[in-house]
Specification:
Porin; 10% helix; 2 helices
C-alpha cells in the first residue's frame, strides 16, 4: 500500500508540473512553522520494527513508543498553477531521545541498567495540493499527497546485557539511511488582513520505514518504522 501511494504521489506531482499551461497564473509562496510528530503506535508498526522487538525480547527494555513524540520545524516553497492546484517542496527536522531500562534486570548494586534510544528524521518532501474553493485572501481548505525522501538516524547507547552469560557491557549501536516514503495531508489557510499573509494549520501522515541491519548491526529488529502523523502550524507569505 505504501509503495502504491509513493508511485501515485510522484506521478501526480510530475504530471501537474508537465501539464501546467504556460499561460496559467503562477503564484509563489513560502511558509515556515513548527509542529509535533506522533509516531505510529505499537500495534500498527511494521513487522520486525526495532522498537517493538526491544519491547518483546527475551529480556525486554522498558519504554513507550509514544515517548518518541517530538517537536518538528519546517520550511516549504510552493508554486500555485491557477486557483486550485499547487505543488510544493520542503524540508523538516525532528528528533527525540528516550531513556530506557531493562524491565526485569538490575545491576548488582540495585541500580537500573540504562540506555538512551534516539531517533532523528529530516524528510525532504514534494507534495501537490488541491484547493477546491477559496482564493488568496479567503479561508482555503485543501487536501494533498506527495513523496518524501527521509534522511534518518537511529541509535541505542548505554549498558546492555549479554543474555548468554548475563554480563553487562557498554556500547553504542547506530543505523542510518535515506528512504522514500509517501505522504497524505489536509489543512486550512486563514488570511491575515489581505491576500499576502496567512496562518496555516495542517495534518499530514508520513509512511516510511528503514533498515537497521538487524543482529549484524547490534539491533534486535531489522527495520525502523518511520511512519507517523504530523500536526503543523505555520506562517505563509505570497509573492
Amino acid at each position: 500500500m505504501m509503495r502504491t501511494w509513493i508511485r501515485a504521489g510522484g506521478a501526480t506531482v510530475a504530471a501537474l508540473l508537465l501539464a501546467a499551461p504556460v499561460s496559467a497564473q503562477v503564484v509563489q509562496s513560502f511558509q515556515i512553522g513548527a509542529g509535533v510528530f506522533l509516531p505510529r503506535g505499537y500495534d500498527a508498526r511494521a513487522q520486525g520494527d526495532v522498537l517493538v522487538e526491544d519491547l518483546n525480547s527475551f529480556e525486554p527494555l522498558l519504554f513507550f513508543v509514544k515517548d518518541f513524540r517530538s517537536g518538528e520545524v519546517f520550511g516549504e516553497w510552493n508554486v500555485a498553477f491557477g486557483p486550485h492546484v499547487e505543488v510544493g517542496g520542503g524540508l523538516s527536522y525532528l528528533g527525540r531521545s528516550v531513556p530506557s531500562v531493562y524491565r526485569n534486570l538490575i545491576n548488582n548494586d540495585g541500580t537500573e541498567i540504562t540506555q538512551d534510544l534516539r531517533l532523528r528524521m529530516a524528510p525532504a518532501t514534494a507534495v501537490v495540493r488541491f484547493l477546491p474553493f477559496g482564493r488568496p485572501g479567503e479561508i482555503q481548505p485543501y487536501v494533498g499527497m506527495g513523496v518524501s525522501l527521509i534522511n534518518w538516524r537511529y541509535s541505542e547507547s548505554g549498558d546492555f546485557v549479554d543474555t548468554s552469560d548475563n554480563s553487562i557491557f557498554r556500547d553504542r549501536f547506530t543505523a542510518s539511511g535515506h528512504d522514500v516514503g509517501g505522504v497524505l495531508l489536509g489543512g486550512v489557510r486563514a488570511p491575515i488582513g489581505g491576500d499576502i499573509y496567512s496562518l496555516t494549520a495542517e495534518y499530514r501522515y508520513l509512511f516510511g520505514e528503514g533498515k537497521t541491519g538487524g543482529l549484524d548491526a547490534g539491533f534486535l529488529g531489522d527495520k525502523i518504522d518511520l511512519s507517523g502523523g504530523m500536526f503543523r502550524f505555520g506562517f505563509m507569505v505570497r509573492f
